[in-house]
Design brief:
- By secondary structure, this protein is an alpha+beta fold.
- The protein has two domains: 182 residues, no CATH class; 183 residues, no CATH class.
- Helix content is 56%, strand content 18%.
- The protein has 13 helices and twelve strands.
- The chain has a six-stranded mixed barrel. Strands 2-3 form a two-stranded antiparallel ribbon.
- Strand 8 and strand 9 form a beta hairpin.
- Helix 2 runs antiparallel to helix 12.
- It starts with a helix and ends with a helix.
Length: 410
Amino acid sequence: MNFLAALRSAWRALASNALRSILTMLGIIIGVAAVITMIAVGAGATARVQEQMKGLGSNIMLVIPGGVTSGGVRLGAQTSQSLTEDDAQAIALEVPEVQVAAPSSRTSAQVVAGNTNWATSVFGTTNDYLEARDWPLANGRLFEAAEMQGAAKVAIVGQTVARELFGDQDPIDQVIRIKGVPVTVIGLLERKGQNSMGQDQDDVIVVPIATYRNRIQGSGGGRLKRVGSINVKVYEGQSMQVAEDAIKELLRQRKRVQPGADDPFTVRNLTEILQAQEASSQVMTLLLSAVAGVSLVVGGIGIMNIMLVSVTERTREIGLRMAVGARARDILTQFLIEAVTLSLLGGAIGVVLGAVATWAVGQFAGWQVSMTLNSIVLAAGFSAFVGVFFGFYPARRASMLLPIQALRHE
């Protein structure tokens, strides 16, 4: 018996018990669909974290002021104003692993352009902030040294601000008013999208830190040039931990912190936080896929069970085939093809169902999903393996029957 003849015979045998075949495939269908959906959800979560890491910038640390204690009450992080622009300059100059250290302060403001207004965030910082964040310009230019030193009334705007204030018009050289201060737009940032907290990173205006301190903040920011945070970018290939320890030691010296006393600042390694999120999502994807894979194994056990029943029901048929010249190899091939056909057909239906489920999760749950060819090949390949693995024993058992005993079977 050639392969095509065995395939036709196997297909007729399955079609003669269509309902039983469908119920047998159900475990494979559910297993394949679950594996594809779980992998797609996990891959989407991983891709989302990678996008956030790309949006944040690589090798980034954030230095923020610590908390203050008043009357025995600890007021939490960033309630003190212990960091200055000089601290950022010292970090950039004295820590060899640091590429740039950008001081920044932030406030919210209602910005007006002509007859349009928009509430947004205003950052006072330097060009180093954009370098640290890997945030290029889509149009325009960066701040010049004279503008930084002279508190020039210039600004760089994000994509959201440009859209809300100017629509489709080019924002470059347009004048906006920030808390009543007229500022000329000199640059437009590339789109960044949302951060890990769901906040729109493009809804921002960047001005020179001297401009922020002397013109927008209002009080002049104090003679000590206090800042709200320092964004630090470490050179590629340098140890983030070494840089973090060096920054802490430098700031403790500058703040004259006594041994054993709490630091009046906090250093957060943002890249490590997102990498930990990515690792967690990958582990969760693996666990969910393993759980879904159990359905495939259960489906394989169902195939073995039904094939054993089929062998028992068709014992006389097997004996008759052998009596007219069928070899043990032919019987083995026929039953093995039946098992693999059940498995592959169930896998194909499962792929379609998995694609629909993946689409539904992304459409209705609002999750980011990523269905790849590798996940489909993996699920379909595993379903075929299940068919061969669990179908071999019944097929082998059928091929080992003796013709005389098989013909006498009642």
